Amino acid sequence: MSGHRELVGALRRAGVSGVDDSALARSMYSSDASLYRVPPQVVVTPREAGELPALLGVCREFGVPLTMRGGGTSIAGNAVGAGVVADVSRHLNRVLEIDPDAGTALVEPGIVQARLHQAAARHGLRFGPDPSTRTRATLGGMIGNNACGSRALGYGRTSDNVLGLDVVTGSGERLRLGDVPGGGAESALLERLRGLVGEHLALVRTEFGRFGRQVSGYSLEHLLPEKGFDVTRALVGTEGTLALTLAARVRMVREPECRLLAVLGFGSMAEAADAVPAILPHGPVACEGLDSRITGVVRERRGADAVPPLPRGSGWLLVELAGPRVEALRSTARKAVGASGCVDSMLVEDMALADALWRIREDGSGLVARTPGGEQAHAGWEDAAVPPERLGAYLREFEALLGEYGLFGVPYGHFGDGCIHVRIDFPFGRSGGRGVFRDFLGEAAALAARHGGTMSGEHGDGRARSELLPHMYSAGALALCSAVKDVFDPDDVLNPGIIVRPAPVDADLRAVQAVPLTRGLGLAHRDDRGDLSRAVHRCTGVGKCRADNTASGGVMCPSYLATREEKDSTRGRSRVLQEVVSGKLGPDGWKSDALHDVLDLCLSCKGCASDCPTGIDMASYKAEALHRRYRRRVRPRAHYALGRLPRWTRLLARIPMMIKVANAGMRSPALRSLVARSAGIDRRRTLPPFAPVTFRRWFASHRSAEGRHGDVVLFVDSFTDAFSPDVGKATVKVLEHAGYRVTVTERPVCCGITWISTGQLDGARAQARRTVQALLPHVRRGAKVVGMEPSCTGVLRSDAEELLSGVDAAAAREVAAATRTLAELLAETDDWTPPDLSGVTGIAQPHCHHHAVMGWTKDAALLGEAGADVGRLGNCCGLAGNFGVEKGHHDVSVAVAEYQLLPAVRRTGEGDVVLADGFSCRTQLRELARRDGEHLAQLLARHLP
Questions:
Q1: Strand arrangement, sheet containing 344-348
Q2: pLDDT for the residue numbered 795
Q3: In contact, 306 and 353? CB cutoff 8 Å
C-alpha cells in the first residue's frame, strides 16, 4: 500500500473537501458513542455529494477502508474505522425537496432529523421514526442502522419509511433505487443479487425478518420475490458496508391532532414487561419502559423538581396514544390501564409535562452511564430485542445473568417492541476484565437467541455484536450475508469488520486503554474519585452537545452551535482529553496543539455540567488543562489582566481618584488601544467603566435595621462592587423588605472565578480559602449567604470545595449549604410576598453558571407568582466572563450572541425588560444590542412599595 502522504495527496487531487490528517482530527474521530477506539488515517468532510464517488475511488485504489459517519452517535462502533472517515454531517445536510402532497422528502445523508422536522413543520409533516438522538442523529446514520426510536410502534422502522436511495456501491457502481431522480436503470449487479437470493429462498424465509426488531445481520427478507425484490429497504441497516448514500427519498407522516400519555406504575421492570402484550392491542404509538433507578439519578443530579410526579411503582411504562379526538384517546387509555394490571397510573394531557417525562427517557443512555457506586457503565450489550411476548421472561433471566457475573445494569427501552437498552459496569479496570466482558456477551447473546431474539434491535451490530451473530443465524445464513457483501463490495473497502468477517468484540476497547491520573491536579474531582482520567472518560459520545437544546432552556454547547465543528463540541473536547490522559498525544499532551485548538473556543459556561446526561464539566477540565500547561510558566497576557481583574479593581478602589483617571483613560482611543494590546484584549471590545463609588464604600454608610428573619451576609463580588453597585443596592433593598438585616464581610473577598477560568488554580485556591474563612463565622451564627453575581455564587456552591482539601473543604461545604441566590432565599421566606409585576413583559437570559449550578427554576417561579410574563432564553450570551473579551474570540462571542439572545432582544417591544443577572451578560447586551439588562433584584426593587 502506498504511503500516508500519498493518500492525503490523492484525496485532495480527486477534489475531496476537508481532508484532515491532523492529530486533532484523528483524536476526535477515533471514537463514536461506542466502547471502541480506532484512530483513522484521515478525516474528510465532503461539501458535495458528488465527491463521494471520487472518495471511494481513491480508497479502492489505495486499499484503504472507508467509513461513513453522520452524527457520530453509533453505540455499536460502526462509525469508526482505521482508514478514511467521511463526516457528512458538516456539509451534506440539505433538504433537497419536500413534496407535501405526496408526503415525502428528498434529503442528503447528513441532515439531522430534527432539522428535517423544522423544514417540514410548515406542512404539518415529520419523519416517523424518532430515536432519542434525533436532535443530532443524521438520516444517513439512521438509514445505516435501521433506526427505530420510541414511536416505531406507530410509524415503523427507518426501513419502513425509505422510498428510494441514490447510492454508490463498494464496487463503484451508481444505483438509483426506488423513488429517486434517474432511477430504473438496469444493473448487472442487481441481477447477480437476484440470482443469489433466488438460490436461497428457503433460508431467507426461515431465518430473516422473523419479528419487527430483527435488525442484526442483513435484512435479506426484503429481497424475496413476494416482497418485490426491494433493494432499497434491504440496504437500510447495512451499516455502510455495501454502499454509500448520496441522497434518500423518505416518507413523511402527519403530526397527529391529539396526543395523550398514560403512565403506568409496576412493582418492577419485569412486571412492566409482562403487561406489554395486553397493552399492544390498544394501538399505542409508543410503549416505553422507565426504571426508578434512572429517575433517581435525575433527582440526585438535577434536584427533586426535575422529575415530575409519577404513579406508585419502581418501574413504569410510558404509553403514548395519538389520534384526532382526545375523548377517544382517554377511553382507549382507560382500557389499556385496566388491561395492564398496573398498581397505579396517571393520564397526562399537558404536553409540557409529557415532554419532561420523555426527556428523562431519552437521556437514559447518558443518565445510567455511572452506577450508584460511581463505576463507569458501558455499552456493548445495550440493544438486544426479543418478541414482546417473551420480554418479561427474558428480563428476569437477564437480570439473573447480571447477578451471576456480579455486574450492574439498569434496563429500559422500547418495551412495546421488545427492545431493551442497558449499560453495564464491565470491570475493564481490573485484571481479567476484558475476559469478563467477552464471556458475558457470549452468554447474553445465547440467552437472547433462546428467546427468539436478535443481538440488535436498532443500533446495528457494528464492532459490538457482529461476532455474536452465529448465536442467532446458521452458518448458511451468515455465508449468504458474506456473499451479498461480495456482490456489492468485492474489495471489502466499505466499513470492513462489520457484520461480515467481523472483528473480535473485545478488540480496540477504549476503556481498557484508560490510564488513571490522580497526581498534580488543581481540582479534587471528588465525583470521580480524584481521577481526572475517570472524569474525562465520562463522555460516552451520545452527542447531546451537538444538538440545539436552547428551546427548553439548555445551554450546551454554545461554541458548537456557533461553528458547527466537532472540535468545538463537548464531545470533541472530551475525545482529545481522553487521548491526552491516555498518553496518545505524546509524553506531554497538555502542551499539544491539538489540545490547545480543541479548548480554545470553550466558553467555560458549565452548560455541559447540567445538560450533558453523563455529567461532563468541561469548564473544570479546561481549567485543569490550563493549570497543567502554564503552571510556573509565562502565561498569555489576558491571564494576568483579566484572570486577576479582581485584584486590580481592589487596588483602584483604595484611591477613588484613580477610578476617575482610569475611566478617563478608557475614553481615549489611543490609550484604550494600548491597554487592549498589552492586556491581550480584542480591540473591538469596549471596557466597562468603573463605578464612581463602589458598593462597599456605599454600604459602609448604610445602616441595615434588625430583621425579623435575622441576618444575611451579602457576598460582594468584584463585579458588583466595582462596576454594578446599583445591583447591590437593589439587593439590599429587597432583602430588607423581606425582613433580613444585611451584612457583608469585614474585608473584601473574591471567590476566584477569574483565576479558575484562566487555569490559575493555585491562586484560585488561595482566594477560595480566604473567602470561606471570611464567610464561615457568619454561617455558623446562622446567617445565609446571598450571592448577586451568578458565576461567583456558583463557585461558593461547588467549585470552592473542589479547590480545597481537609478542614478547608469541610468549611467550604458548610458555606455552600448556606449559600443562596436571591430567588432561592425569597422562596424560603414564608411571610414575604413579591411585588405585583402584572404587566411586566420581556425576556430573561439566565447566566450559564446559574443554569448549570443553581438552576433557574426558583427565579421562574418567583416571576410567575408575581405576575410577570418573562420568556426564558437558552444558550449563552457569548461573553462568558473573560472569553469574549480575549483577543481571537470576538467573532465567536458575537456568533453565540446572535444565535438566540440578540434576535430575541430585537423582537422585544418598548418597555419590555431584559433580565440578566450576570455582569458579563449585561455587558454583552450593552455593547452588542445597546440595551441595558436588568438584575432580578433591580426589577423587584423598583416595584416595591
A1: 344-348, 258-266, 315-323, 286-291, 412-414, 419-421
A2: 98
A3: no
**Closest to 248 in 3D by CA, of 122, 455, 106, 435:** 106
- C-alpha–C-alpha distance, residues 252 and 371, integer Å: 39
CA distances from 771 to 717, 776, 805 (A): 11, 8, 15
Question: pLDDT tens digits for 51-71?
Answer: 999 999 999 999 999 999 999
pLDDT at 352: 87
Query: Can you tell me the distance from the alpha carbon of 931 to that of 336, in angstroms, rounded to the nearest whole number?
Result: 54
The three cell numbers of residue 165 are 436511495
Give this prediction's pTM: 0.93
Written as nine digits, the cell of 704 is 441595615
For residue 66, the one-letter residue type is: L
Residue 469 cell numbers, joined:
451473530
Annotate 520-589 with DSSP letters as a single string: S-SS--GGGTT-HHHHHTT-----GGGS--GGGT----HHHHHH--GGGSHHHHHHHHHHHHTTTT-TTG
Distance, CA of 621 to chain centre: 16
Those residues whose C-beta lies under 8 Å from the C-beta of residue 531, and which sit 6 or more positions away, are: 516, 517, 518, 525
Distance CA 438, CA 223 (A): 34
Sheet with 869-872, strands from edge to edge, namely 869-872, 841-844, 913-915
493 φ, ψ (degrees, to nearest 5): -90, -35
Alpha-carbon distance 371 to 425, whole Å? Answer: 7
The pLDDT, as a whole number, for residue 365 is: 65
pLDDT at 364: 67
- Contact between 388 and 416 under an 8 Å Cβ cutoff? The reply is yes
Q: Is the dihedral of CA 358, 361, 365, 369 positive or negative?
A: positive
The answer to whether the CB of 416 falls within 8 A of the CB of 385 is: no
Is residue 863 a contact partner of residue 808, using CB atoms and an 8 Å limit?
no
* Gap between the Cα atoms of 319 and 762, Å rounded: 53
Asked if 18 contacts 67 with a C-beta cutoff of 8 angstroms, the reply is: no
Given this model, what pLDDT does residue 1 score? 40
In angstroms, rounded to a whole number, what is the distance separating the alpha carbons of residues 193 and 173? 14
User: What pLDDT, on the 0 to 100 scale, is given for residue 378?
Assistant: 92
Any bridge partners for residue 378, and if so which? 424
- What one-letter code names the amino acid at 549? N
Length of the chain, please? 945
Roughly how many angstroms between the first and final C-alpha of the chain, as a whole number? 82
Residues 6 or more apart in contact with residue 807 via CB below 8 angstroms: none
Whether the CB-CB separation of 392 and 274 falls below 8 Å is answered with: yes
Cα pseudo-dihedral 772, 775, 776, 781, rounded to 10: -170
How far apart are the C-alpha atoms of 602 and 24, rounded to whole Å?
15
**How many C-beta atoms surround the C-beta of residue 293 within 10 A?**
19
Q: Name the residue type at position 260.
A: L
Query: What is the Cα–Cα distance from 758 to 803, expressed in whole angstroms?
Result: 14
Q: Pick out the chain residues at pLDDT < 70.
A: 1-2, 364-365
Residue 489 CB-density burial (10 A; 0-12 exposed, 13-18 middle, 19+ buried): buried
pLDDT given for residue 184 in this prediction: 77
